[in-house]
Automatic annotation (TrEMBL), chain A:
F-type ATPases have 2 components, CF(1) - the catalytic core - and CF(0) - the membrane proton channel. CF(1) has five subunits: alpha(3), beta(3), gamma(1), delta(1), epsilon(1). CF(0) has three main subunits: a, b and c. One of its GO terms (cellular component) is endomembrane system. The lineage of its organism: Bacteria, Pseudomonadati, Pseudomonadota, Alphaproteobacteria, Sphingomonadales. One of its GO terms (molecular function) is proton-transporting ATP synthase activity, rotational mechanism. This is ATP synthase epsilon chain. SUPFAM superfamilies: Epsilon subunit of F1F0-ATP synthase N-terminal domain. It holds the Pfam family ATP-synt_DE_N. It comes from Qipengyuania marisflavi. It is a peripheral membrane protein.
Automatic annotation (TrEMBL), chain B:
The keyword Cell membrane applies. This is ATP synthase gamma chain. SUPFAM superfamilies: ATP synthase (F1-ATPase), gamma subunit (SSF52943). It is a peripheral membrane protein. It comes from Qipengyuania marisflavi. Keywords: ATP synthesis, Cell membrane, CF(1), Hydrogen ion transport, Ion transport, Membrane, Transport.
Length: 85, 291
């Protein structure tokens, strides 16, 4: 089952896709989000979001700064202030 | 009646004006597309943010809520954040924005409130200064950057929040144009600080227990400044799109008017030329007949 992942910045919608897992740098430690994660919200610290498109695949990482992540039944939404590159 | 030469010069000057307005119209049309795309690209973030705000604001209330949400408890001192453009040649856009700001200011002053202005963009400075010279507290210049981005919004927002925390004002309103189409840009007045509690009716699935890390209040504390920033960023983007849209329409009209004027002047020029030739002919014929 894929996880719907969205990465949004004020300037644009950077990503909106179905992935296997995303590792988010939370303020109190990194956390991985898989499909069916319990509703959850956290602020994030500056760091890299790692996106695993498939199980065991090589992660794609995107550097983000400032923002927060929200997990709801519709998927994971990361609202970041800046996205590098 | 104007002489032939005068008419000719006049036609030439109107023609060169038309060239300018036509060029400006085309530039605005090209920029409009980009500005509109930018304004549209910013909407998902704002929408998500207010969703999250709505779900959080309902949970944190009372005295534990951050000051940005509950306010200072007073509504005596108001700050009007007015977003104007930096450049002219965009029809009635700026005067409409200033008009909306003045209406709001008048209403507040009539209610005995203290009103101050925080101006963004060059074009609002003069007309507001004329009416309320002692009420302008600050001016933020955006004319040195080509397209105002998130950095500018961040700078404005942090300055506003610093002023709020220092107790310079109790309530802030944002006056900015909303881009509807190239023909319609309506100025709107919206409350900025304290952050108005969003409607919570639309949040479905409220029964699910959401876990917060670190905690609701900490997240909200971080969220509110961001919300103010996003609001101002949205205002700047809308301003950009509105400026280009209004400019395009105004310049289209100006080009058409110049065309009409050129046509009228050309007819007048040809008539006087013909009249001059006829007079000359009559003089020659009369002279020949007299011999």
């Amino acid at each position: 089952m894929p996880l719907h992942f969205e990465l949004v910045t004020p300037a644009k919608l950077v990503r909106s896709e179905d992935v296997h897992m995303v590792v988010v740098p939370g303020a109190e430690g990194e956390f991985g989000v898989l499909e069916g994660h319990a509703p959850f919200m956290s602020t994030i610290r500056d760091g890299a979001v790692q996106i695993y498109k498939t199980e065991g695949g090589v992660p794609e990482s995107i550097d983000i700064r400032g923002g927060f992540a929200e997990v709801s039944e519709t998927g994971l939404t990361v609202l970041a202030e800046h996205v590098e590159g | 009646m104007a002489s032939l030469k005068e008419l000719k010069d006049r036609i030439g000057s109107v023609k060169s004006t038309q060239k300018i307005t036509k060029a400006k119209q085309m530039v605005a049309a090209a920029k409009l597309r980009r500005a509109q795309a930018a304004a549209e690209a910013a909407r998902p973030y704002a929408a998500r943010l207010s969703e999250v705000m709505a779900s959080l604001a309902g949970k944190v209330s009372g005295d534990s809520a951050p000051i940005l949400l509950r306010g200072t408890g007073s509504t005596q001192r108001h700050l009007l954040v007015v977003i104007n453009t930096d450049k002219g040649l965009c029809g009635g856009l700026n005067s409409n924005i200033v008009k909306a700001a003045k209406v709001k200011a008048k209403e507040l002053i009539a209610n005995g409130k203290d009103v101050r202005f925080y101006l963004v963009g060059k074009k609002g400075r003069a007309p507001i200064k004329r009416e309320y010279p002692e009420r302008i507290s600050k001016h933020f210049d955006t004319s040195n950057v080509r397209t105002p981005g998130f950095e500018e919004a961040e700078a404005v927002a942090s300055e506003l929040i610093a002023m709020f925390e220092a107790g310079d004002f109790d309530v802030a309103h944002l006056v900015s144009p909303i881009f509807k189409s190239a023909l319609v840009q309506d100025p709107t007045v919206a409350q900025l600080i304290p952050v108005p509690a969003p409607e919570t009716g639309s949040t479905a699935g409220g029964d699910a227990v959401v876990e917060y890390e670190p905690g609701e209040e900490e997240i909200l504390e971080e969220l509110l400044p961001r919300y103010v920033k996003t609001q101002i960023f949205g205002g700047l983007l809308e301003r950009e799109a509105s400026e280009q849209g209004a400019s395009m329409t105004a310049m289209d009209n100006a080009t058409r008017n110049a065309g009409d004027l050129i046509q009228a002047l050309t007819i007048k020029y040809n008539r006087s030329r013909q009249a001059a030739i006829t007079t000359e002919l009559i003089e020659i014929i009369a002279g020949a007949e007299a011999l």
